Automatic annotation (TrEMBL):
Its EC number is 2.3.1.48. One of its GO terms (biological process) is subtelomeric heterochromatin formation. Keywords: Acyltransferase, Nucleus, Transferase. The lineage of its organism: Eukaryota, Metazoa, Ecdysozoa, Nematoda, Chromadorea. This is Histone acetyltransferase type B catalytic subunit. It is found in: Nucleus. The keyword Acyltransferase applies. It catalyses: L-lysyl-[protein] + acetyl-CoA = N(6)-acetyl-L-lysyl-[protein] + CoA + H(+). It is an enzyme of class 2 (transferase). One of its GO terms (molecular function) is histone H4 acetyltransferase activity. Belongs to the HAT1 family. Residues 16-171 form the Histone acetyl transferase HAT1 N-terminal domain. One of its GO terms (cellular component) is chromosome, telomeric region. Residues 273-324 form the Histone acetyltransferase type B catalytic subunit C-terminal domain.
Length: 411
């Protein structure tokens, strides 16, 4: 690696790197894979390098975060052709310092390549934490889902490592305080043959979900999904839906669970949840096509809640998706009735007063509630906004419908 001093770095853009482009990740089973393993890009690095997600001070920068596939210890390799000189108060970013917070660094990062190699050797002895609640086969591979309800020091350190990784993929991801008893965690692993010829296997981490159990009067709880992550090598393969359905089945089996909610979901999560909930509701007679065309009913809400632990707001959304799916788009009257049904709900915040907004929270998503400002609009603007909102919603619904047509069952 060549080092050179550079002056006037403020005017030299070559020393500013796009963090999303230069940071890569690997997940290794052994040291032999370190140069050949697939490199994956993070979805975000703003928690590490600021809102602009840029790294200052290096030319031809490459940052590779190597992980042990089972235990998620990290070894970071940083390479570059030149480094900016510290002049006029401008100093090159300490990449490793920004990637891993000092409070968790001793647990997450190894001291060097030799220690990383030892972690790779030892990880074959790793056993999943908690209790296995489901296992399934998908595209010739085996997966296991585990629930962890009681934390230990060893588990908490493991969780700290995967949540540190989650900051690259989950919006506003943070480390959970496991001193609280209300946290509940699910993990999915791929069960792989070691290749040693003796039938032994290892469990590679594929993802996790973290929930917080909120109290619900009198003796029930409302688990809220706070984080859900699939590692990049397991995405776009159907595993996300299978994982979600696995831990939802476990939650549905518990009589103390009232319903399952979500905290600030991103678009990808919303799409995944819609698909899973729609596939499940399609098995309920209350959501049969002939019932859907009659309009949303309390029987639908009650069936979704009691049989599938789906919240009131989500049940209404599922109804709208499935009704749109059941609507004959060539029948103008049928399509008009569907459109009026949805627009009537979307129009509600435009005509309600402040005292009604609490009730609207039960029926509308945060994005839809923000449209309540439309109450101050004139009728022409309201009509235009309503049409735009409907079109965007149907576009999202159609993506879920297309997935249902392609994959009508989860397992």
């Amino acid at each position: 690696m060549v080092m050179e001093d550079v002056t006037n770095v403020n005017r030299n853009r070559r020393y500013i790197s796009d963090g999303l482009a230069v940071v890569k990740m690997t997940f290794l089973k052994n040291m032999q894979e370190i140069s050949t393993a697939p490199r994956y890009e993070p979805e975000m690095v703003y928690q590490h390098f600021g809102d602009e997600e840029t790294i200052f001070g290096y030319e031809d920068l490459e940052v590779t975060i190597h992980h042990t596939a089972q235990t998620l210890y990290s070894y970071i390799n940083v390479s570059y052709s030149s480094k900016a000189k510290n002049e006029n108060g401008l100093e090159a970013d300490d990449v490793i310092d920004k990637l891993v917070h000092p409070d968790v660094r001793p647990n997450v990062l190894v001291s060097g390549k030799e220690e990383f190699q030892q972690k790779l050797i030892k990880q074959k002895d790793f056993k999943p934490f908690g209790e296995m609640v489901h296992k399934f086969e998908l595209k010739g591979k085996s997966y296991e889902v585990y629930k962890v309800a009681e934390q230990t020091e060893e588990f908490n350190l493991f969780l700290e490592r995967i949540q540190t990784l989650g900051m690259f993929f989950i919006e506003c991801c943070s480390l959970t305080d496991n001193t609280e008893d209300n946290w509940l965690h699910y993990f999915i692993y791929e069960r792989c043959d070691t290749g040693e010829g003796d039938g032994s296997t290892v469990a590679n981490v594929a993802g996790y979900a973290t929930l917080f159990k909120f109290y619900n009067y009198i003796d029930r709880i409302r688990p809220r999904i706070a984080q859900m992550l699939l590692l990049p090598q397991y995405r776009k393969s159907g595993i996300g839906a299978s994982f979600m359905e696995s831990f939802l089945r476990d939650l549905r089996a518990s009589p103390e669970v009232f319903d399952v909610t979500v905290e600030s979901p991103g678009d990808q999560f919303v799409s995944l949840r819609d698909y899973v909930d729609c596939v499940n509701c399609m098995t309920l007679r209350e959501f049969a096509p002939e019932n859907l065309k009659r309009g949303y009913s309390d029987k639908m809400r009650q069936a979704a809640l009691e049989k599938l632990k789906i919240s009131r707001q989500q049940a209404r959304r599922v109804y709208e998706i499935l009704r749109y799916r059941a609507t004959n788009k060539k029948d103008k009257e049928e399509l008009k009735a569907q459109r009026i049904d949805v627009k009537r709900r979307l129009y509600a915040p435009m005509k309600k007063s402040d005292q009604d907004w609490k009730r609207l929270n039960l029926a509308l998503t945060p994005d839809e509630l923000r449209q309540a400002a439309c109450g101050q609009m004139d009728e022409e603007t309201k009509f235009s906004t309503l049409s735009q909102n409907y079109d965007r919603l149907m576009e999202a619904y159609q993506k879920t419908i297309d997935r249902i047509e392609q994959h009508p069952s989860i397992f």
